[in-house]
Amino acid sequence: MVKITSLSLLFFIFFLNSACQQVDPEIIRFGIPTPPKQLDPRLATDAVSSRINRLLYQRLVDFNAQLKAVPSLATWQKISPLQYRFTLKQPFSLFTNGQPLTTEDVKATYLSILDKKTASPHRSSIAMIKKIKIIDTKTLDFILTQADPQFPSYLVMGILPKKQLKSAHSFTDKPLGSGYFEFLKRFANSEILIKRRQDQQKFQFIIDRNPTVRVLKLQKGEIDLLQNNLPPEMIAYLNKQPHLNLTKGAGSNFTYLGFQLEDPIAGNLLIRKAIAHAINRPLILEYLLAGRVAGSIFPPEHWLGMDLKGLDYNPELARQYLKQAGISTLKITYKTSNDPFRIRIATVIQNQLKAVGIEVKIQSYDWGTFFGDIKNGRFQMYSLTWVGIKSPDIFHYIYHSDSKPPKGANRGRFSSKEVDQLIEQGKLLTDSEQQKAVYQELQQKIFNQLVYIPLWYEDNYFAARNNISGYQLALDGNYDALFYTYKQ
User: Fold this and answer.
1) Which residues of 245-255 are buried (b: 16+ CB within 10 A; e: fewer)?
2) For residue 190, is pLDDT > 80?
3) d(CA 13, CA 110)
């Protein structure tokens, strides 16, 4: 990582190399570290794709500041524990090709997700849908196989047009939604150009994996704003620049260490306990990034949040667990992306584990290769961040034994009949307080098994040039505030 003391030389080299580069002054350019992998919301699982898809597509339901489900495209009423009626708001929203979004499109979207041929990783979260019955163009009923008081909160998928779904349209290549933004172009380097439908303002997502280069591009004006994924010295540097504005806020995105539980080493609970006690999370948060120590996937302010803080830093106890496992010196591989900041964090964890007798080999890859390996189980240990988690359907999606990829995101191949039963029990309960009690018991059991080692909830921040106004941080780091963002 380039130190602040050498920034002047780096600036000189950067400016020299980019002196002839031209940018369109009318476009607002947003710097991001990785490209969106999937602009079809039925298939998207990575954070950048999900955030951009929120701009391009609308959904029946969204969440408020307290992370409770609220109407978006539609209001709803509970006809019975097994029947929910949704009514689209009027006038109808329009897809970017001019088609009105009706109940036919809603039904087609959810039937497509439920179709095994689609291979949607989100299928398991709505598997309780037995039938979708259209009443008229604005009203439809969801008939369920089992009661779940949280059901409306699961209907957060971007709605696609029925006509294009039937014609096998490639939404990945040519997204077609009814959101406040319209897809215009994907460049050869995977950068995305969209426009705000209200006033035709264009936004381009500029991709650069190197956080220092993103900062330099912001300094020079080749990008107009960026959000998150910077080391602390870069944040401190940005905060001192008179022509830039830096804003910080608490975040809910959950960073963790994941494990291949079918592996004889990573699947050993004693070894995972040793790793957990060997990591000094408060020290990492003090010197490497801003955030809060995490103990569960949901932050404390969520209605399912718990007062779990994770396992304390205790290197002596870590050595004892290794001894109990019959291991004095352990070797394990740790996969991460090739983002320099993520490699830096992995290196610190590597050094902390080495101090207790765990030798870590870091393997860093471009995002596509890395994420592909994680989804396909090709790892022993890895680190990632769950972004935008709001509803309890996440438990089935990442912990249930039926949700191993490609059916879901149980990437570590965790399997527990007791956990499966609690997940299924939670879905059957109609009283939200009883459901909360079951899900909190579930979180405690997941914590005890260390399916993940909780690390932290990362704080959010964004930096923008002085001529950019209107952008505000969201708790989950989404990009929704681009709707209010302008260039002066």
Assistant:
1) beeeeebbbbb
2) yes
3) 51
Q: Is the pLDDT of residue 295 over 70?
A: yes
> Which residue intervals of the chain bear CATH 3.90.76.10?
55-166
Task: Spell 205-224 as b/e; 16+ CB within 10 A means b.
Answer: bbbbbbbbbbbbbbbeebbb
The two structure tokens encoding residue 221: 């004006």
Contact call for residues 258 and 399 (beta carbons, < 8 A): no
d(CA 67, CA 69): 7
Average pLDDT over residues 31-50: 92
**pTM higher than the cut 0.85:** no
Q: What is the pLDDT of residue 22?
A: 66
CA distances from 38 to 242, 267, 304 (A): 37, 31, 29
pLDDT tens digits, one per residue of 109-147: 999 999 999 999 899 889 899 999 999 999 999 999 988
User: Which residues of the chain are in CATH 3.10.105.10 domains?
Assistant: 251-458
Task: Taking the CA atoms of 65, 71, 77 and 78 in sequence, report the sign of the dihedral they define.
Answer: negative
Q: How far apart are CA 95 and CA 182, in angstroms?
A: 9
CATH superfamily name and code, 55-166:
Dipeptide-binding Protein; Domain 1 (3.90.76.10)
pLDDT in tens, 390-406: 888 889 889 999 888 88
Q: Is the pLDDT of residue 1 over 60?
A: no
Q: Evaluate if residue 183 carries a pLDDT over 50.
A: yes
Alpha-carbon radius of gyration of the chain: 23
251-458 in CATH: which number?
A: 3.10.105.10
Phi, psi of 218 (to 5 degrees): -65, -45
What's the CA gap between 197 and 186, in Å, rounded? 18
